[in-house]
Specification:
four-stranded antiparallel β-sheet, G-protein_gamma-like_dom, single chain, Regulator of G-protein Signalling 4, domain 2, GTPase activator activity, mainly alpha, 26 helices, two-stranded antiparallel ribbon, elongated
């Protein structure tokens, strides 16, 4: 019984080891190769011919127009543009190549000649050529004294780089190239010509001209989806199993164990384990976690999705056109359809928040936090409620998660000193369990995730308590009332402008009502205040001088200096106003002397 179990285990392990991971583009390759095999059919395929040139012959070729005609006749392709695109895909993946020019593009309607690639070089064989193979090919090209086989400029540069890179193995590379060259010389001339063109087309695909797209590169996301690692690495698992038919050792009277090696492939994107047992334990725990999760029925999921999207249909611009009669918010028109950008500039120009934006805040707490204006409005409300430190702490933790590595210790220290420490300036409301977790995280290794538990706790508090009170607050209701009133766009702009600029008529009226404020110096001293909050300076002193009829020598140099000092120390004064005041004082002195 035990032997049968061991045998079954061995067979399963062997089959697992022999399993090959498919290429992520294998489905595309199979479809292309099916069409290529139809083209190569002796009766219904493309007629391959020999073209006579001036002094030579080009064998086993066909024209691009022949491909177009065959595709239209045998495939549901009614447009020549689609046929050209399909042929371009064949050429870019290396199934067809041009004889005269070494490019991986194709124009089906031209008069150039093309040739099929041999199945040995098809991409479905998962070719991953190394630099040594490329060096052997370039060396072999240099040994052939033919004009059409001379190295291009970029190929000569690549050969020099490879010679420097493989300096220790260069003698072996040269020997391989020389051996292949001797084998090729023994072939027929026409056969050698076809093989040379096919080999060159293979390297034009895998080592393209600088500036061309390398179609052999595979996206890492496709590799992950196909379950194939970027580099096909595998670990070897040694399995020892006792075989009943094994012979006994005469010296020690022990059974010789049957040792077999099983290749074990790890999934891409996962941490590499040196011990396969550790990897298997992690995978088993993940599978057990999946089994323990509650699985909902598809009908329940579909019902919840329909309810969610049906509730948010009014915010979908594809279903409800903005600014139309069906728009429940009666906002600005869609800027991508209309010629105006009022939808984008409404909040910034008018200073008000649109109804659509306010109603979106009611949908969820996450929508409120995503919006910068929503966070600012919520912060104002929380400051009034004396709980603004909660939102500030949550924002600082989000900033910590996205900061650079060198700023992590600095931000961790700042957050702890401001919100967590016993002597913090703005302590947040967290319980003892969360505090213990934070202390443990900071003690082991402070990182960008040290405050995640506290941030989640504060987020739940704000969502369950502060967010509900915010929606019922007077601040939010006032914003809704203001946005609900219908004003024209120009009226909203003028209202915002009136908030920023103070009216000039009130200042002029105050100057006319005050008899002690001279009209001829209104533009000079307008808006000046002294240290006591009242108008002060040389002008008031001059008027007082007129009423009391002071002596001409009452304004000496010290008084003038003090006057200038008072004017310069007043808020918002400029140097030209002080110079104007001193000139008016001098003029008044002359009039008194006269």
């Amino acid at each position: 019984m035990a032997s049968s179990n061991c045998t079954s285990t061995t067979s399963c392990s062997t089959s697992f080891a022999e399993e090959k991971h498919p290429h992520p583009n294998m489905l595309i390759y199979r479809k292309m190769e099916k069409l290529i095999n139809q083209m190569l059919h002796s009766e219904d395929g493309i007629k391959i011919k020999t073209v006579k040139s001036f002094l030579s012959k080009i064998v086993s070729v066909f024209s691009g127009q022949d491909l177009i005609v065959w595709l239209i006749a045998h495939i549901d392709v009614f447009d020549e543009i689609d046929a050209n695109h399909l042929l371009h895909l064949f050429a870019s993946h290396g199934y067809i190549f041009q004889v005269d020019d070494h490019v991986i593009t194709m124009k089906g309607g031209d008069t150039s000649f093309y040739r099929f690639q041999t199945p040995y070089f098809w991409p479905s064989n998962c070719w991953e050529p190394e630099n040594m193979d490329y060096a052997v090919y370039l060396c072999k090209r240099t040994m052939q004294n033919k004009a059409h086989l001379e190295l291009e400029d970029f190929e000569a540069e690549n050969l020099a780089k490879l010679q420097k890179m493989l300096s220790r193995k260069w003698e072996f590379v040269f020997m391989q190239a020389e051996a292949q060259y001797k084998v090729d010389k023994k072939r027929d001339r026409i056969e050698r010509q076809i093989l040379d063109s096919q080999e060159r087309a293979f390297w034009d695909l895998h080592r393209p001209v600088p500036g061309c797209v390398n179609t052999t590169e595979v996206d890492i996301r496709k590799l992950s989806r196909s379950g194939r690692s970027k580099q096909s690495t595998c670990n070897t698992l040694v399995i020892q199993m006792e075989d009943n038919e094994s012979q006994l050792n005469n010296s020690n009277n022990l059974k010789t164990p049957n040792i077999r090696e099983v290749r074990f492939y790890q999934k891409p994107g996962r941490r590499r384990y040196t011990q396969i047992k550790d990897y298997l334990k992690i995978e088993i725990s993940e599978l057990q976690t999946r089994l323990s999760k509650n699985v909902l029925k598809t009908s329940k999921l579909a019902e919840s999705y329909l309810q969610y999207y049906g509730h948010r249909v009014s915010f979908d611009a594809f279903i409800v056109q903005l600014g139309s009669a069906t728009d429940p918010f009666q906002g600005q028109p869609n800027p991508w359809i209309s010629d105006t950008v009022d939808f984008w500039q409404h909040d910034k120009i008018t200073g008000d928040i649109s109804t659509r934006r306010l109603k979106l805040w009611e949908e969820s707490f996450e929508e409120l936090l995503i919006d910068p204006v929503g966070r600012e409005t919520l912060q104002k409300f929380l400051d009034k409620e004396y709980s603004g430190e909660n939102l500030r702490f949550w924002m600082e933790v989000q900033k910590l998660r996205k900061c650079s590595c060198r700023m992590v210790p600095v931000l961790v220290t700042e957050i702890y000193n401001e919100f967590i420490d016993s002597n913090a300036q703005s302590p947040v409301n967290i319980d003892c369990k969360v505090m213990e977790i934070i202390d443990e995280n900071l003690k082991n290794n402070p990182n960008r995730w040290s405050f995640d538990e506290a941030a989640d706790h504060i987020f739940c508090l704000m969502k369950n308590d502060s967010y509900q009170r915010f929606l019922r607050s007077d601040l939010y209701r006032d914003l809704l009332n203001i946005s609900g009133k219908k004003y024209s766009f120009s009226t909203l702009i003028s209202r915002k402008a009136s908030r920023k600029t103070p009216s000039k008529t009130t200042t002029n009226q105050q100057s006319l009502d005050n008899p002690q404020f001279p009209l001829n110096t209104l533009n000079t001293c307008k808006g000046l205040r002294g240290s006591s909050g009242s108008r002060s300076g040389s002008f008031v002193g001059i008027e007082r001088e007129k009423k009391t009829k002071c002596q001409p020598n009452s304004f000496d140099s010290s008084t003038l200096t003090m006057t200038r000092g008072n004017v310069n120390s007043s808020r918002g004064i400029r140097r030209d106003s002080s110079s104007c005041s001193s000139s008016s004082v001098a003029a008044q002195q002359r009039s008194n002397n006269n």
